[in-house]
Amino acid sequence: MIEIIGKEKRKIHIEESKKLSDIYSAFNIDEDGFVAILNGNPATSDAIVNPEDNLVFLEIFSGG
């Protein structure tokens, strides 16, 4: 399952394995605005995501 946590919250399921960069593109997720956590560890855009994996996109917030 893929979970997007930020200003809005969404849950998405994928049917087949995909590169993380393809998931960013397919679901219109700003790669510079989110950190990807794959199965509890930070992931780079070349990581392979399987349907049974747990992927969380955490939106990067800044402020003062």
Automatic annotation (TrEMBL):
<protein>
    <recommendedName>
        <fullName>MoaD/ThiS family protein</fullName>
    </recommendedName>
</protein>
<dbReference type="InterPro" id="IPR012675">
    <property type="entry name" value="Beta-grasp_dom_sf"/>
</dbReference>
<dbReference type="InterPro" id="IPR016155">
    <property type="entry name" value="Mopterin_synth/thiamin_S_b"/>
</dbReference>
<dbReference type="InterPro" id="IPR003749">
    <property type="entry name" value="ThiS/MoaD-like"/>
</dbReference>
<dbReference type="Pfam" id="PF02597">
    <property type="entry name" value="ThiS"/>
</dbReference>
